[in-house]
Amino acid sequence: MGRVFFNTRKNVHALTAAYTVLDSDSGKIFTLDSAGGAYSITLPTAPLEGFHCKFIVKEDTPTGAITIAAGSAILDGVQKDAGGDAANSTAGTAVSNLVVGTSSTQGDVIDLVSDGTTYYFECLSGINNAITTS
Predict the structure, then answer these.
(1) CA 96 to centroid of chain Cα atoms
(2) Secondary structure of 17-32 in the HEC alphabet?
(3) Among 96, 45, 101, 53, which Cα is nearest to 75's?
(4) How far is CA 100 from CA 11, 23, 89, in A?
(5) Is 6 helix (H, G, I), strand (E, B) or coil?
(6) How confident is the model over 12-41, as a mean pLDDT?
(7) Largest CB tally within 10 Å, which of 18, 34, 76, 105?
């Protein structure tokens, strides 16, 4: 009997310029590269319950900042970074943007999920304050 393979590959989408995330992008992993300059990623303003995606910094020390924008203060979450603190966590006060700064490093990650009203995020960064909120 032959070997059986299961398709467990992840759907990876490389971003190098502005992009509007679609509801159908749920489950995707986006890689971030700003070699062409700063850009914004726009999230759906009315998030679907169960929506989930992940952003991974591909470019070591990005050329320009990358803003992940929700359109209103519906992002709530926690960040841990190389400084060992959660200084850019929202602490219960939702924000509108996550900003992947130019000091980010390859492999920094933002995991995002929605309950249908709010986007909840977890950020992990190898550089202190490389990912901020606004």
Answers:
(1) 13
(2) CCEECCHHHCCCEEEE
(3) 96
(4) 22, 22, 14
(5) coil
(6) 96
(7) 34
| Phi, psi torsion values for 62, nearest 5 degrees | -50, 145
Q: Please, what is the end-to-end C-alpha distance for the chain in angstroms?
A: 57
- The CA distance from 26 to 112, in Å, is 10
- Give the integer Cα–Cα distance in Å for 60 and 47: 30
Contacts with 23 (C-beta within 8 Å, 6 or more apart), sequence order? 44, 48, 51
Partners of residue 19 on adjacent β-strands:
41
Distance from C-alpha of 68 to C-alpha of 62, rounded to nearest angstrom? 14
The SS3 of residue 90 is: coil
User: Tokens 């159908």 map to which residue?
Assistant: 24
The overall average pLDDT reported for the chain is: 91
Report the C-alpha gap between 74 and 72 in whole angstroms: 6
pLDDT at position 34, please? 95
